[in-house]
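call fold(seq) -> tokens
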Amino acid sequence: MNHSLLPSRGAFALAPAQAIPLHLSSAAQWPGLLGSLPPLQRQWIATTGFEPLAGRVLLLPGADGALAGVLVGIDPSEPLWQLAALPPLLPAGVYAVAAGDEAADAERDALRQLGWALGALAPERQAVQLRVKDGDLQAMECLAAAVAEVRRLVNLPANELGPQALAAAVQALATEHGAQYTEWVGEALPGAGFALVHAVGRSGAQAPRVAQLEWGDGAAPRIVLIGKGVCFDSGGLDLKPAAGMRWMKKDMGGAAHAMALAGLIMQARLPVHLTLLVPAVENGVGPLALRPGDVIRAGNGRLVEIENTDAEGRLILADALHHALRPGVEDPARAPALVIDLATLTGAARMALGPELPALFSNHETWAADLLAHSRRTHDPLWRLPLWAPYRRLLKSDSADTMNAASTPMGGAITAALFLEDFVPAQVPWLHLDLYAWNTEARPGRPKGGEAQGLRALFSLLSERFAP
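ret:
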């Protein structure tokens, strides 16, 4: 992504620029902070009735009537969002968190700076800047750029971001970073091992396709990223109701996340061999549409019976998983160090965890525990759900090796993950994120619409595990 076009560009000023102090306070910190302020400002606070509640902001006057400081009420448990509301609210100027108001904490400060950068993505902001150290600047802007790109892609309408345009975005990412790009389209898919991708997407207005990016040293640890790229999901012949279909332009959110994560990895030049796969389709209705009861042979040879055409995401992910992992099956030396798939996969995950908490499934205890630790550290929430093996019986088919969905809606996120697990060799560490990729309401730093979820936690994990 071209960072010169990023809306948050210019949101930071390098020390030692003169700055207006931001006085951050929770209710517990308030008595001490209030006592440290000059009488004029204490009188102004009393007049306005300001209380240090999270999200409250008060401009403080100086003796000359000029802006001398800003009071900001905060929730200490959410450092990421403490400054996010400020860029659209504050008058033009350079600001800095007031020194001496609290103990030093580099991790907390980095989260605050990222929150400021995300708040600065708001198009209506003034010419405001936050003073930071030089070393902080690039990391903040790269993360903000990745989040902005996920939001941009997810927010695009399906008539602008169909399978062809989504694959073109992967190709542009490959070109930007000098990566190798390969694409399989339409009738070439079954012969290349993507019969499930073809079956799902053949009824769409544009031909289905699979976009692949390869980057890095072939001798380095191999990381595989796979993103679900359903550019619009009508449900197919098992048609969604109007309310369920309304926002299905976002069903390519997993692809947007995988692409943004790949961009961060390549920009940081992590010493890995990166494979990115995006199966891009539209799940449409028409003479060629996939039917309930159809039996399709997947790329790995397994026969899949279609129980529900609206369980299409796992089908295209399954072929992508097999394609990416096949070299390691044939030659264990080429097995990936880690495979990650990201998908707006099931309504069941949202019913269980709501829109803000993506579900994590994994076949590897250490990788899962480490990702959850980075999730907590980066304030990028995830919640692990089990790969409950007894539920495999719910996918049993009388005419194939498996069904693509259970006949019962109960445990739907788990049965979807179990279906995918059958396409991952047991010895390969695998992380599966079932995302919503959408903000249902606007909050500071988080506008309504497309959202990046789990992205920062994953990049933090990979940066630590594969540090240059």
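The CA atoms of residues 164 and 283 lie 14 Å apart.
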